[in-house]
Amino acid sequence: MSKGHPIGATGLAQCTELTWHLRGQAGNRQVNNAKLALQHNVGLGGAVVVTLYGI
Q1: pTM check: above 0.90
Q2: Could you give the CA distance from residue 27 to residue 13 in angstroms, rounded to a whole number?
Q3: What local confidence, expressed as pLDDT, does residue 44 receive?
Q4: Cα distance between residue 34 and residue 25, in whole Å
Q5: Other C-beta atoms lying within 10 Å of the C-beta of residue 54
Q6: 15 exposed, middle or buried (CB, 10 Å; 0-12, 13-18, 19+)?
Q7: Contacts 24+ apart (CB under 8 A), 47-55
Q8: pLDDT value of residue 18
Q9: CA distance 22 to 43
């Protein structure tokens, strides 16, 4: 239900959640008919990552 905000692990958790949605494995959080997913994460020192996933 919660993981806090561990340095480095937040981006990986986002990646995992988006992959589950695209695979139809997100349980009660599932977005129906997901074909694209966008990840945006801002880290320490101003590092920014934007990733687009698709099936």
Answers
A1: no
A2: 16
A3: 77
A4: 11
A5: 9
A6: middle
A7: 49/11, 51/15, 53/18, 53/19, 53/22, 54/22, 55/22
A8: 96
A9: 25
Would you state the structure tokens that stand for residue 15, as one six-digit string? Answer: 């990646």
Q: How far is CA 5 from CA 12, 25, 36, 41, 42, in A?
A: 11, 23, 25, 12, 12
pLDDT of residue 1: 62
The pair of structure tokens assigned to 45 is 């020192």
Contacts 24+ apart (CB under 8 A), 2-7: 7/43, 7/44
- In tens, the pLDDT along 1-55 reads 667 777 778 888 899 999 999 999 999 999 999 999 999 988 778 888 899 999 9
- Residue ranges of the domains in the chain? 9-54
